[in-house]
């Protein structure tokens, strides 16, 4: 252990702080909410962290729900375990084999996580595709075939009408025998609304009845859990089962949501469940979080077919602590998951990527201006969406709307289906819409987006004037853009699994396609102007509208999530468009800059704050000049700090103190008069140890003295035996002085993942600062409600 002296913390020299951090991070788990045992006090030397008892009691060293783990204790336990295995491996062959299996267990776990997540993602993709098509009709050859596979098997399909075949019949044909006319249209319309309501109703009922944690995206909670927070059941087997089923139902219902974000939650559930097969991950919360970081990468890998982007997503967006070992294992797990998904081939195109594109024209430097314009649009849309969605979710939490989640889901589903069906671009699923918008028109393409006038007799792909079909498509896309922007605001956050990647990309892709077609027509009619002269001659194929859709999709997703590097990599893995990295980078960076001008929080950080989770955002800077004494508790008018003395208190007095307070731990001092700090003991460990001693240790009664000293003090002959609890006490809790600047204190909390920090003056205990105190102080400084921070 490394000891940080109070003198060092008082020095404002950055060199002192830097040296301290380097020493700490070399041997201490530098991540989230743990209690660090790194500050020296009262001349105590470094104490070995016990396990926490020589004969560990069940429950000691574990954590209550909605609490933060002790990172340093977990890491120390793992080091002690590893040291013991290494020492034993030198003594026998069996122990050596055990050591090898222990080292290999992490890679085996990654293999299992990749296989399980890839298999589940493949099943979700296939099921969602089939159930989405069921809203439109059924395949007579076999009801289990979706529309595309049904018509693949038909010999009567034409190229121009490849989506129509006798084997696939709409609900109007099945019920009335007619495929055309107003009655058939109304029948199909009603069946579309019926299936949308049915799927959404089943989704919300299953979530409400069996797994309330299965709703939403899951990424805000995953980020909080990876920072050290405990949410029991959030990654459990019931959550996995219900989330997998209801994700298919929610996506198939036609709601404006995606399955990509929830797949990260599904992969983390798989990882958490599989961790129980391996002792070192089952019994160690810090080690388990390393696996969950890798699982987040697996989730994005199977969602988009982007294994490298998944690893970068986990590193940039989700993980709080990401050592090199976790990077390698994330890469391996993402590779296995991508291979598994490719073997299942859910898209039926023998490709791993979701939206494969093949553009024929390279981009020109002049086009950077519209790409940056798309970045500005994406940033504005992202900032607007976050503010609107958070306002709507806050309204849901604070009004009666939140008491009726089933009705809310059904109303939104009915409204979505009612408005979406008349427009072919809102009727199709989000993935289909994006694929259509990314598509580069060929000569024989029957899509309305390719409704150009044919002006040349040769089979060239030159820029052409827009025809009536394209103008109709543009009007429909403009209406779809407004609809998607508005309906996504109220959909994200409902009590069904809901991802944000696909709806955000759809908004950007629509805007990009509209701008791309506009640029294409501008180039066609003004090819002699200064802007286009020299690189876009008449009859040339200069502008690719699909590329603009791709750039717009990246810009809007970046504006909402504030992703940068991982987003660009995901986009070129997603589309295969490797040569378009520069336009993607320009739009993504512009989007982030514009969105950050209105607020530095992405959508996931905003939802973390809305839910009151104790998450110290590493990107947020502390810009105030307050000191530790200004933030610590107790304040000047508060009651004195609840403490334990190292000797002199009875079991009954300790139990009364614990029952009369709700604190998660208590400082231990020499005496009530001196207030000289000795250590820190956790509430849970204290209660478990006392309860166990009453049951198993003879003579322990309420009058028994509780002793935290190394040697038992002399007691009267008729006194009951004392209860020695030094073994559960942390002898080196992290301390700062009362004049330590809060910006340094906040930085220490972030870098070391502290849960609490004791404040002293010349070795005398003054108070305590918890992560919750820091978050409340930061909220107060930012003119936000400090009581919105609910957990510690």
Question: How does this structure look, described?
Answer:
GO terms for molecular function: voltage-gated chloride channel activity. Belongs to the chloride channel (TC 2.A.49) family. It is a multi-pass membrane protein. The chain is mainly alpha-helical. Helices cover 54% and strands 5% of the residues. It is built from 29 helices and eleven strands. It has helices spanning 6-10, 14-27, 71-89, 93-134, 147-152, 171-176, 182-210, 219-226, 237-252, 260-275, 279-282, 285-304, 307-318, 324-344, 368-398, 405-420, 424-427, 430-438, 468-491, 501-525, 545-561, 565-575, 581-597, 603-611, 628-631, 651-660, 683-696, 742-752, 771-781, and strands at residues 137-139, 168-170, 644-645, 649-650, 665-669, 677-682, 705-707, 723-724, 735-737, 756-761, 764-770. The protein has a three-stranded mixed sheet with strand order 3-5-6. The chain has a three-stranded mixed sheet with strand order 4-7-8. Strand 5 and strand 6 (677-682) form a beta hairpin. The longest helix has 42 residues, at 93-134. It is elongated, with a radius of gyration of 30 Å. Mean pLDDT is 85; it is low at 1-54.
């Amino acid at each position: 252990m490394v000891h940080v002296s109070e003198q060092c913390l008082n020095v404002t020299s950055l060199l002192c702080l830097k040296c301290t951090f380097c020493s700490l991070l070399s041997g201490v788990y530098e991540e989230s909410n743990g209690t660090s045992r790194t500050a020296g006090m009262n001349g105590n030397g470094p104490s070995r962290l016990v396990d926490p008892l020589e004969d560990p009691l069940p429950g000691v060293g574990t954590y209550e729900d909605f609490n933060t783990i002790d990172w340093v204790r977990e890491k120390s336990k793992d080091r002690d375990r590893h040291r013991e295995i290494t020492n034993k491996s030198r003594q026998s062959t069996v122990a050596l084999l055990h050591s090898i299996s222990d080292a290999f267990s992490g890679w085996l776990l990654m293999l299992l996580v990749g296989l399980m997540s890839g298999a589940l993602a493949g099943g979700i993709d296939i099921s969602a595709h089939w159930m989405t098509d069921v809203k439109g009709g059924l395949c007579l050859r076999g009801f289990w075939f979706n529309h595309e596979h049904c018509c693949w098997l038909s010999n009567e399909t034409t190229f121009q009408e490849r989506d129509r075949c006798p084997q696939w019949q709409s609900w109007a044909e099945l019920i009335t025998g007619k495929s055309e006319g107003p009655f058939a249209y109304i029948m199909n319309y009603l069946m579309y609304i019926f299936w949308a309501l049915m799927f959404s109703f089943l989704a919300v009922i299953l979530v409400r009845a069996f797994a309330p944690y299965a709703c939403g995206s899951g990424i805000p909670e995953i980020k909080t859990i990876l920072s050290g927070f405990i949410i029991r059941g959030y990654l459990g087997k019931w959550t996995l089962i219900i989330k997998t089923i209801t994700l298919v139902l929610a996506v198939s219902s036609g709601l404006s949501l995606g399955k990509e974000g929830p797949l990260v939650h599904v992969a983390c559930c798989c990882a958490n469940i599989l961790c129980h097969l391996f002792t070192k991950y089952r019994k160690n919360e810090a080690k388990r979080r390393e696996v969950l970081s890798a699982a987040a990468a697996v989730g994005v890998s199977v969602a988009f077919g982007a294994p490298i982007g998944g690893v970068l997503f986990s590193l940039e967006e989700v993980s709080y602590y990401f050592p090199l070992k976790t990077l390698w294992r994330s890469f391996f797990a993402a590779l296995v998951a991508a291979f598994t998904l490719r073997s299942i081939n859910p898209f039926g195109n023998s490709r791993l990527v979701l939206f494969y594109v093949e553009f024929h024209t390279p981009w020109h430097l002049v086009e950077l201006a519209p790409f940056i314009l798309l970045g500005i649009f994406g940033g504005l849309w992202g900032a607007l969406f976050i503010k609107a969605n958070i306002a709507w979710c806050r309204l849901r939490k604070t009004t009666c709307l939140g008491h009726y989640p089933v009705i809310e889901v059904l109303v939104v589903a009915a409204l979505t289906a009612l408005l979406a069906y008349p427009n072919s671009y809102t009727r199709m699923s989000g993935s289909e819409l994006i694929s259509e918008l990314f598509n580069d028109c060929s000569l024989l393409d029957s899509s309305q987006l390719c409704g150009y006038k044919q002006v040349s007799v040769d089979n060239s792909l030159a820029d052409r004037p827009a025809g009536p079909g394209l103008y109709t498509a543009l009007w429909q896309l403009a209406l779809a853009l407004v609809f998607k922007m508005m309906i996504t605001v109220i959909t994200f956050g409902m009590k069904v699994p809901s991802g944000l990647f696909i709806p955000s990309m759809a908004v950007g892709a629509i805007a990009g396609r509209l701008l791309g077609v506009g640029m294409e027509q501008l180039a066609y009619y003004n090819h002699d102007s200064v802007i286009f002269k020299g690189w876009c001659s008449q009859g040339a194929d200069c502008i690719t509208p699909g590329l603009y859709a791709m750039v717009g999709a990246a810009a809007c997703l970046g504006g909402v999530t504030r992703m940068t590097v991982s987003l660009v990599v995901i986009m070129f893995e997603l589309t295969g468009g490797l040569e378009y990295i520069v336009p993607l980078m320009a739009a993504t960076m512009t989007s982030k800059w514009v969105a950050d001008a209105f607020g530095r929080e992405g959508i996931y950080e905003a939802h973390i704050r809305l839910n009151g989770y104790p998450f110290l955002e590493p990107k947020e800077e502390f810009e105030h000049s307050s000191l530790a004494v200004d933030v610590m508790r107790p304040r000047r008018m508060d009651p004195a700090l609840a403490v334990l003395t190292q000797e002199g208190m009875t079991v009954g007095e300790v139990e009364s103190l614990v029952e009369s307070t709700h604190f998660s731990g208590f400082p231990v001092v020499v005496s009530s008069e001196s207030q000289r700090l000795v250590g820190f003991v956790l509430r849970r460990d204290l209660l478990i140890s006392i309860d166990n001693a009453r049951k198993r240790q003879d003579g322990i009664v309420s009058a028994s003295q509780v002793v935290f000293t190394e040697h038992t003090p002399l007691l009267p002959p008729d006194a009951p035996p004392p209860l020695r609890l030094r073994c559960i006490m942390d002898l080196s809790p992290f301390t700062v002085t009362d004049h330590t600047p809060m910006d340094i204190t906040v930085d220490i909390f972030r870098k070391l993942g502290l849960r609490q920090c004791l404040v002293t003056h010349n070795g005398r205990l003054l108070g305590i600062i918890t992560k919750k105190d820091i978050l409340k102080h930061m909220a107060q400084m930012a003119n936000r409600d400090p009581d919105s921070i609910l957990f510690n």
